[in-house]
Amino acid sequence: MVEFRLEPEERQDAKRTELKGKVLRLKDLVQYQEGTIASRMIINRKAGNITLFSFDEEEGLSEHTAPYDAVVTILEGECEVWVAGETHRMKEGETIIFPAHVPHALSAITKFKMMLTMIRE
Fold first, then answer.
1. What angle do CA 44, 2, 66 make, to 5 degrees?
2. DSSP 3-state of 3
3. Is the pLDDT reported for residue 14 higher than 50?
4. How far apart are alpha carbons 77 and 27 in whole angstroms?
5. Residue bearing the bigger pLDDT, 1 or 43
6. Of the residues 46, 60, 65, 90, which has the fewest C-beta atoms closer than 10 A?
């Protein structure tokens, strides 16, 4: 199981504020870490959040559901995703919407980076 280390909320907020009003290359905002998954939240609001992830080869997220629709855009590399038992191979520039309450999972084929957007109801 992957363990995430969280920074104090004030520091996270300051880092997110530094991004505002700037032109960004999203895939450059999160770095690969050997043997694990790294993440960086760039927007965190009551209405939803946007989080960037990097996955080392053969890393992934096991099947789960979420209470909200989740939009995943691949920023770099390749992965396989499963939605309600259907498999899709995805690469840079492609997007998929995981419907709320529907089982989904993903796994790295190569190292890959993605953006996850969750909008709460």
1. 50
2. coil
3. yes
4. 10
5. 43
6. 46
Q: Which residues of 35-50 are buried (b: 16+ CB within 10 A; e: fewer)?
A: eebbebbbeeeeebeb
Half-sphere exposure of 10 (CA within 13 A, CB side): 0
Domain ranges of the chain: 9-119
Nearest Cα residue to 112 out of 76, 60, 73: 76
- The pLDDT score that the predictor gives to residue 1 is 46
Chain centre to alpha carbon of residue 1: 16
Which residues 6+ apart lie within 8 Å of 45 measured at CB? none
Q: What local confidence, expressed as pLDDT, does residue 24 receive?
A: 86
Amino acid at 6: L
C-alpha angle 72-107-48 in degrees, rounded to nearest 5: 25
Per-residue tokens: 59: 């890393």
- In angstroms, the CA 28 to CA 32 distance is 10
Distance CA 100, CA 60 (A): 19
What distance separates the 2 farthest-apart alpha carbons in the chain?
40
